[in-house]
Amino acid sequence: MAEIMNEERKKSSTHKMLKYIVDAVVIIMIVLLAILTAVFAVGMRNGEQPSLFNYKMFIVRSNSMSPEFKTGSLILVDAGETEFSRGDIITYIKDDGNLSTTHRIVEVYEGETTRYITRGDANEIDDPLPVFEDEIIGRVVLSIPLIGYVLGFIQKRWAFVALWLVPSVVIVLFIIREIMKELERGKLSL
């Protein structure tokens, strides 16, 4: 009988610990998403490319780099990188506009100025114009699928407020739920 009670306590204790870990991970993910959302929204509202430290954030808007990156992915670009070689995936802006492009370097021509020939992984031909060093923003270091859709959505003012409000309400409700459970068990008193 005592063994059964001990085993049930161990299971209960393990279950509680696992629940706390899962709850903590969920809260951390919500907080990180809120921070990422805030950084992205503030950058976009200021008319700048959103960045965190030396990493600039871009939303993939086409499938030219599929299957590496799909539309709606968020990519982080190391803006401090200055050395590039064949096979690197870079983000650049041509002189003729402010539209960024993220493609793979397929050829490098060194001379008075270094020129890079790029191509999207899903494209059959190289891009028509070479990319010069001063047009390169940096090398892609990370891709997070689908997050770009969320960040694109928050560019709308009401969505930005909702994405701050919803996680805040979820966290408050979570805390209230935990307090209510402790009150029911008699471990807390008012």
TrEMBL record:
Protein name per UniProt: Signal peptidase I
Sample GO molecular function, one term: serine-type endopeptidase activity
Domain Peptidase S24/S26A/S26B/S26C: 56-118
EC number(s) recorded for this UniProt protein: 3.4.21.89
Enzyme class (EC, first level): hydrolase
Principal location class: membrane
Organism: Dethiosulfatibacter aminovorans DSM 17477
Keyword Mitochondrion: no
Keywords assigned: Hydrolase, Membrane, Protease, Transmembrane, Transmembrane helix
Subcellular location: Endomembrane system
Coiled coil: none
Listed GO CC annotations: endomembrane system; membrane
Residue ranges crossing the lipid bilayer per the database entry: 20-44, 136-154, 161-180
A Gene Ontology biological process term: signal peptide processing
Pfam families: Peptidase_S24 (PF00717)
Classification via InterPro entries: LexA/Signal_pep-like_sf, Peptidase_S24_S26A/B/C, Peptidase_S26, Peptidase_S26B
Keyword Transferase: no
